[in-house]
Amino acid sequence: MTANTVHGTSGEYSPGSTAARQARERLERERRNRAAQLIVLEGPDEGQPDETAPGRLDTLRRTLEEIEEALGRLEEGRYGLCEGCGKPIPEGRLEILPYARFCVVCQQRQRGRA
């Protein structure tokens, strides 16, 4: 598969498919990594207080929620489709950010609204 290949409309992420299984593995690995980071940040603080910790905690919790939502989309057969335009999200984007909800164009539009 090339970097320009996209998924979604052809059912490559349909439950039980190889692509869905690989996406699940990426998401679960990401969830484990983020959960471990959260445990470290929530643990007892030894030394100087970290003033950035509350913001990082919020970001980690939000990312974990996004991962859970992506796992739900995977189960429902909606994984890999942009929530903005409905088009497939490029595979390269999903490899880098497996819980992506939007293609790059729609993500930029979302940021413009924030």
UniProtKB/TrEMBL annotation:
<protein>
    <submittedName>
        <fullName>DksA/traR C4-type zinc finger</fullName>
    </submittedName>
</protein>
<feature type="domain" description="Zinc finger DksA/TraR C4-type">
    <location>
        <begin position="77"/>
        <end position="109"/>
    </location>
</feature>
<dbReference type="InterPro" id="IPR000962">
    <property type="entry name" value="Znf_DskA_TraR"/>
</dbReference>
<keyword id="KW-0863">Zinc-finger</keyword>
<feature type="compositionally biased region" description="Polar residues">
    <location>
        <begin position="1"/>
        <end position="17"/>
    </location>
</feature>
<feature type="region of interest" description="Disordered">
    <location>
        <begin position="1"/>
        <end position="28"/>
    </location>
</feature>
<dbReference type="InterPro" id="IPR020458">
    <property type="entry name" value="Znf_DskA_TraR_CS"/>
</dbReference>
<dbReference type="Pfam" id="PF01258">
    <property type="entry name" value="zf-dskA_traR"/>
</dbReference>
<dbReference type="GO" id="GO:0008270">
    <property type="term" value="F:zinc ion binding"/>
</dbReference>
<feature type="zinc finger region" description="dksA C4-type">
    <location>
        <begin position="82"/>
        <end position="106"/>
    </location>
</feature>
<keyword id="KW-0862">Zinc</keyword>
<keyword id="KW-0479">Metal-binding</keyword>
